[in-house]
Amino acid sequence: MPRTRVLIMGAAGRDFHNFNTVYRDHDAFEVVAFTATQIPNIEGRVYPAELAGKLYPQGIKIYPEGDLLHLIHDLQVDEVIFSYSDVPHTYVMHQASKVLAAGADFKLLGLRTQIKSTKPVVSIGAVRTGSGKSQTTRRVAEALKSLGYKVAAIRHPMPYGNLVAQNVQRFGDYDDLDEYECTIEEREEYEPHLDRGVVVFAGVDYEKILRKAEAEVDIILWDGGNNDLSFYKSDLHIVVADPHRPGHESTYHPGETNVRLADVIVINKVDTANNESILAVREALRGLNPNAIVIEGASPLGVDDPAAIRGKKVLCIEDGPTLTHGEMAYGAAWIAARRFGAAEIIDPRPYAVGSIAATYQKYPTTGAVLPAMGYGDAQIKELEQTINNTPADLVLVGTPIDLRRVLKLEKPAQRVRYDLQEIGKPTLYDLLKEKFGEKK
């Protein structure tokens, strides 16, 4: 029988996982290409032979997604597997329509890609990127540690460099971040865990990563990326919703799937959202998953010196993915600038250079704030130049890390800090104690 010829549409994460769990070493299929989007400079590479398995001695080429229709024709593709996240349902079906019209089948892979752990797994996902998964994962880690468990966070993949070197990564301290040449986006996710004594694992091959983590800890935390599904079978699945984006809980892929799978849903940011939006999200979640336990939470903001903000011209830097494909026009730094009396919020768009300017063109919903894009040394330099070009008196950094560690800023800067704070009962600690008890 001829092998089914498969193309995987991705963004350097879920696509590789789908390949590893479903297609690698499966001689009924031939994966002829990956396509890439969302992340800059990931096309034009090869998924290497060392990771692709015995059926792919030359590896598998990665092309820009814009070449999709040509590739279907030129490579005689039978099936296209859509393998990335945080996109509207309509977008997914537009891609499906193009693929079907080009003569190939269009597929989504679901829970069959989840790997079973020998240890309990708590997974944290979301309706959209930027909802607050990271602070929720930190809160869960703190609760489990207080119950006596040793935990590790396994982070959704961000392998933007040498895939062979990044296949299985363990981060125990800041030196490991430097060793693996982590991007700003990776540091944003890893550093807050390291600051709390939680080891982080990430990479490309998530079965190997899981087995390595299992040898060290009692409980695995899946720290999801975007609004993707967990790569692991979960004993407790926690999903974070954002009342700043009401309606998205049922209109984005695969966020709606996350909601329907959830054991616990956290409606975050209720301290900064309006009551009508909170009510709308609460009712929508009840309709999608009436059996989930719903917790409402706040992400209270704090800065080191509020008085230094008052009356100043302030540049606000926010988490990159939240502003780009997350479609938010503001974030924690913007809220802090307004709250603490900034005279003006500087619009960085007229001062943007290089790939930063291109980011605004690609994602026009981004508001008068600066996405902390840093997918390589060149882009980090362009981010620095954009910041230093602005006439701001002060820079407010609303990302989870101190950007002053990786950027050379010519202006004073303050960090905006935020953590999850549950409102009322039950708390995440209560639910985790009920589920797992205290370690004896």
Mean pLDDT over all positions: 92
Portion in helices: 25-40%
The CATH first-level class of the largest domain comes to Alpha Beta
Structural class: alpha/beta
How many strand segments?
23
Which strand order does the major sheet show? 10-11-9-12-8-13-15-16-23
CATH architecture designation of the largest domain: 3-Layer(aba) Sandwich
Radius of gyration: 21 Å
Give the DSSP E fraction (strand runs of 2 or more residues): 15-25%
CATH topology of the largest domain: Rossmann fold
- Provide the CATH superfamily of the largest domain: P-loop containing nucleotide triphosphate hydrolases
Summarize, please.
This protein has a nine-stranded mixed β-sheet, sandwiched between helices. The chain starts with a strand and ends with a helix. The protein has helices at residues 14-23, 49-52, 68-74, 89-101, 133-146, 174-179, 184-195, 206-214, 255-261, 275-288, 320-323, 332-339, 354-362, 377-389, 428-436, and strands at residues 4-10, 29-36, 46-47, 60-64, 79-82, 87-88, 105-108, 121-126, 151-155, 168-171, 199-203, 219-223, 236-241, 252-253, 264-267, 293-298, 301-303, 313-318, 344-345, 370-371, 394-397, 413-418, 421-423.
What does this structure look like?
This protein is of the alpha/beta class and 440 residues long. The protein has three domains: 4-112, 3-Layer(aba) Sandwich (Rossmann fold); 121-300 and 420-436, P-loop containing nucleotide triphosphate hydrolases (Rossmann fold, 3-Layer(aba) Sandwich), CATH 3.40.50.300; 302-417. It has 15 helices and 23 strands. It has helices at residues 14-23, 49-52, 68-74, 89-101, 133-146, 174-179, 184-195, 206-214, 255-261, 275-288, 320-323, 332-339, 354-362, 377-389, 428-436; strands spanning 4-10, 29-36, 46-47, 60-64, 79-82, 87-88, 105-108, 121-126, 151-155, 168-171, 199-203, 219-223, 236-241, 252-253, 264-267, 293-298, 301-303, 313-318, 344-345, 370-371, 394-397, 413-418, 421-423. A nine-stranded mixed beta sheet has the order 10-11-9-12-8-13-15-16-23, with helices on both faces. Helix 5 crosses helix 15.
